[in-house]
Specification:
about 140 residues, about 15% helix, about 40% strand, mainly beta, 4-stranded antiparallel β-sheet, elongated, 1 helix
Length: about 140
Amino acid sequence: MNKARMVLATALAFGAMLSMTPGASASRDTEVYSDDPDPKGGMAWFKAEGEHFGICDRDYDDLGVRGRLTWTTGGVTHERKLWHHTGHHQDPRLNCDSFPDDIEIPEGTKVYLQVCLQKEKGAPLKYCDTDTGVA
């Protein structure tokens, strides 16, 4: 095999290998905790498979939790919000809420997940923190 053919064969093999590796848009779950002193009072999570979004109240601090999920597709920004202001309970199943349906977010889209503490719905937000994931 001459040198030109060997270079071509190597380049084709390398290109084939690159096409099999996951792209930068691989889905990524994320969770984020409020920025208050430990124990962190609030948590929000995003699960890429099926686009699920939820929040949890993690502390007896008289503050509720507000979660916000945003993403942009086709130049339009979309938003989903959740509130949990019923207090922290002994039964952990009562401390979390999730968006009731799968959220239709195109695969590979970057999402922004924010969690904040809040005395009541509409009150000023406190101890907010944000992280990103990929649908």
